[in-house]
Each structure stands twice: as C-alpha cells, then as structure tokens.
Specification:
about 260 residues; alpha/beta; 2-enoyl-CoA Hydratase, Chain A, domain 1; Lyase 2-enoyl-coa Hydratase, Chain  A, domain 2; six-stranded mixed β-sheet; four-stranded mixed β-sheet; 11 helices; about 45% helix; binds coenzyme A
Length: about 260
Amino acid sequence: MDYRTLLCNIDERIATVTINRPDKLNALNAEIRADLKRCFAALKNDPEVDVVIVTGAGEKAFVAGADIAELAVLNGETGRAMSSSGQGVFDDIENLGKPVIAAVNGYALGGGCELAMACHLRIASENARFGQPEVNLGVIPGYGGTQRLARLVGRGRAMELILTGLPIDAQEAFRIGLVNKIVPPAELLDRARMMAKAIGSFGQIAVRMALKAVNITEEVPLSEGERLEASLFGVCCESPDFKEGTRAFLEKRKPIFRHS
Ligand code: COA
C-alpha cells in the first residue's frame, strides 16, 4: 500500500514505518495521522509482518510534535475532536497486537514523544531529545501524553516534564525509564532491526500474549490482571510452539518455532 506521508518497507517479517516530512521535522498533520491509521490497520492484518519499527525521516527529528499550524486554528470543539482522533491513532499502535519499536532519531517532542510512548519499546539515538512542550503553546498534551507519560516514568517526573515543558536528552530519558536503550545515531536502525529480529525469532503466540498481558496492567486491578495472565498463559500452553520450545530446551537444541 502507498502513503503520501509515510514510507512503509517490509523485509524479513519486519515492517519499518518512516514518517516522511523532514522539512517540517516530521510534524504530525492530519494527513500523517490518517496515513498512520491506514498503515497500522494494514500491518495488523498482514500475516507477513511480526514486528514493526517506527522512525522519522532525516537526521534531526523523530517527530517534532503535532503540526502547530493546524493547532493554531482549533476551537473547543475541533480541539476535542482532534485530540480524540489522535488518541485513536496512537491507541491503534499500542493495541496492534504485534510489538512496535520506536527508533527515535532526534526530536521527539509533543506528539512525537506521545507517539514513541504508544510504541512498546523505545530505542533512542544519542542525539534524541524528548519533551512535552505544549504548555509553551497554551495547551496540554492531547494524544495520550498526560496518561502514558505518568504510567511510564511516574507521576512526579511526568508532572515536571509537562508543567515545565523542558526537553530532556537521551541519557536523562534512559535514566527515568522513558527509553530502553541509547545507541549512536548511525547504528539506530540496525539496532532496532536486531531487536525486532530477536523478538521475531520467538514463537509469536507467546510474544502476542505477553503484549496483551502487559498492556492491560494499568487498566485493571492486580487480581483481574492475574486472571487474564493465567488465561493467556493457558493459550500459550496449547500452542505447538510451547511444546517445541520446552522440548528443545530439554533436548539441548535450538527451538524451531512455527508461530502457531
Ligand atoms: N509544527 C509545525 N511545524 C514545525 C514543527 C511543528 N511542531 N516543528 C518544526 N516545524 C517546522 C518549522 O516551522 C520549520 O519550518 P520552516 O522551515 O518552514 O520555517 C521547520 O520545521 C524546521 O524547524 P526549525 O524550528 O527551523 O528547526 P530548529 O532546529 O531551529 O528547531 C525545534 C527545532 C524542534 C526545537 C523547533 O522546531 C520546535 O520547537 N518545534 C516545535 C516543537 C513543539 O512545540 N512541539 C509540540 C507541538 S504540540
């Protein structure tokens, strides 16, 4: 499928989605949001794709936020609608059912930080900068940022980032748990692919059940989460990949997963 604002390349069961508006630091406009929605719907149903990487075109930015020119004309009603629709796009990413890795290659501000947080894992290049600078514009994060940031790094740090609007560098983002790994810029995509390949080499039923179980953590009480965990654990135990994985360990050989 072709997109005007995205590049989507599928290779060895890994899809790489590149937001391609480098002259505006990949700022998210309505067209990009619509393309992301279509693209992730296609990837969800694509049996040839196990893992997705999201990155930004150019060397400067992952995504420098929502398009401020589009924000500037919003009123109460259109603002609410834009926020809900952006949240929907990022919820689709979080609920893709397949792992999504953000390869953060520069500025991840506002909607860019929110996009990275909707992904399941974040690898940042050394030059990445994260922040929620919306207060500078007289607005708040509106694509899930007030919710996901607090869940990822704790309420105190989320408050600081959102109330001061100040960006943090990759090291600080790593220190507070906003990113999983920092790598040199030239290695970013290779390292993201290595991680994607490693995840793709496991039985995908287990990978998908793990995503489902961890994704629900903040939405349900512990007892309900544990009930779900037990039921997803049971789903894994029914799978041929589980039989193969356990048998291979006992036979001291590498497992051959068939993703079933
Ligand atoms: N929305 C719309 N356009 C944006 C943008 C955004 N969020 N971020 C960058 N751009 C545009 C700039 O207007 C500029 O366009 P122009 O060349 O037509 O003038 C182009 O991208 C390059 O950005 P520029 O500001 O010249 O780069 P810089 O290196 O001097 O600064 C940033 C980089 C990221 C610090 C700066 O662009 C910035 O602060 N962007 C806005 C960040 C933000 O507030 N995001 C949250 C929005 S809710």
